[in-house]
Design a protein that fits this description.
two-stranded antiparallel ribbon; 5-stranded mixed β-sheet; 436 residues
């Protein structure tokens, strides 16, 4: 029998924190005093208020605790994590699905805190990504802006349903009923105007060519006072949400002043814009050292299909799983926009959509955009350079020519090893170059 020595602990003095809404259960584990290799532990309960958490920080300092591990429980972990981080402790946040209770033991807060302490001292699990404080402040604003935008979109959809209920087919003639012309027509209808000819004359620019069709669509025979009352409330709510979004965007622009260079880098990616760049930086930050490779970032954002296999057979549908909904929403919009452009990403989308569902093709474009994002944010001097709509044709011609020469050499008895000299010939190269 061969004797082996156990690996040293990841941290000698640790704390495991089981978080609740009103209180937290904390277990510390430190080296024992009696014999080498022994551990001693103590468990205490603290209130989740600021005073209680400051008391917890003082208790951890008394025992010279350096690392604290906790489980992500709703939003209740945030005050605990942020306060201890500000007090100088090294905090680790574990994903709830990865922290498994030991089978066969009771489920209590005390035992959970002990288990979290053991996980922390052994380094059994990687910590979740928690952005720095300045990015967290930006994230709070960008996430709320997205919620307000979604609420405004939902209110606009309800407004269109109300018009359909009143037999007003305005949305069939106008792409955006909340534009200048559409809004003027709706305001006049609320004010009591019911003459279709007068309402149709409010059309502007290119809509003037649809006057006859607009007169038919603006027949107000079924439009009642109740419709006018509800429509007025809906439009007022849309205006209120728009004002809030504009005010919040001004605040976000101030918070993004330190990241103007990174936003300008991302703004050059097809499908991206200033708002998308702000949302992405608010979610992943600008320090890409926390994601060693672009694959790590894509996996964290759930933009990489997970393949489960057993006995050589694939299991499940290779779904990406539940990821960050905010970065997923931003990338989804950016991928849809990129698919309509005459760029490399647009060409790639149109090639993929021929043999796969549209949403799956958009997911592939989202992953490519996230890989480009990682490359841009990793190098301050990098800028996006589009590969062109004929990239696939050029690559196919180059490969065909290279294979032809390689086969000719092999027929003469030589072995050929192909390695690209110019990065542009590498099919896996990112469309990112150094700025001159």
């Amino acid at each position: 029998m061969q004797e082996v020595e156990d690996e040293p602990l990841f941290a000698e003095r640790v704390a495991g924190i089981d978080i609740g809404k009103k209180s937290v259960m904390v277990t510390i584990r430190v080296p024992g005093d009696t014999r080498k290799g022994r551990r001693q532990q103590e468990t205490r309960e603290f209130r989740a208020t600021r005073a209680g958490l400051l008391e917890l920080a003082d208790w951890l300092r008394c025992w010279q605790v350096t690392k604290a591990g906790m489980e992500a429980t709703g939003d209740y972990w945030k005050p605990v994590y942020f306060l201890l981080e500000r007090e100088g402790f090294d905090c680790v946040l574990y994903h709830a699905s990865q922290v498994k209770a030991l089978p066969g033991r009771p489920k209590t807060d005390k035992l959970d805190s002990v288990w979290l302490a053991k996980i922390t001292e052994r380094g059994s699990l990687p910590g979740s990504f928690v952005p720095p404080e300045d990015i967290r402040r930006l994230r709070t604003c960008t996430r709320y802006r997205r919620h307000l935008t979604q609420a405004r979109t939902a209110e606009k959809a309800r407004c269109e349903k109300l018009l359909e209920d009143a037999h007003l087919k305005l949305s069939s003639m106008i792409s955006d009923i909340h534009g200048v012309s559409g809004r003027e027509m709706l305001t006049a209808i609320i004010a009591g105007q019911r003459n279709p000819k007068v309402l149709a004359q409010m059309a502007r620019t290119r809509m003037r060519g649809k006057i006859g069709q607009l007169e038919e669509a603006l027949d107000c025979s079924f439009f009642t006072e109740q419709h006018a009352f509800i429509l007025q409330m809906m439009l007022a709510n849309i205006d209120h949400l728009t004002a809030q979004i504009d005010e919040l965007s001004k605040k976000i622009n101030v918070l993004c002043e330190p990241y103007e260079r990174q936003i300008a880098q991302l703004d050059g990616v097809p499908g991206f814009g200033i708002i998308t760049a702000q949302d992405i930086i608010g979610e992943i930050g600008v320090d890409m050292s926390v994601f060693p490779t672009a694959g790590h970032l894509c996996s964290w954002a759930r933009q990489a299909p997970q393949v489960s296999s057993s006995a050589g057979k694939r299991k499940g549908k290779n779904a990406t799983g539940r990821g960050n909904p905010y970065i997923g929403g931003a990338l989804g919009e950016a991928a849809a926009n990129a698919g309509r452009t005459s760029t490399f990403l647009g060409t790639k989308y149109r090639r993929l959509v021929r043999h796969m569902p549209k949403k799956k093709a958009q997911g592939a474009i989202s992953r490519t955009q996230l890989v480009i994002t990682h490359a841009l944010l990793s190098d301050p001097e990098a800028e996006y350079t589009d590969l062109g709509t004929d990239y696939y044709e050029r690559r196919a011609n180059i490969r065909r020519e290279v294979r032809s020469h390689a086969r000719a050499i092999e027929r003469r008895g030589y072995k050929v090893i192909l390695e690209p000299i110019e990065p542009g010939l590498d099919p896996d190269i990112l469309p990112v170059t150094k700025a001159s």
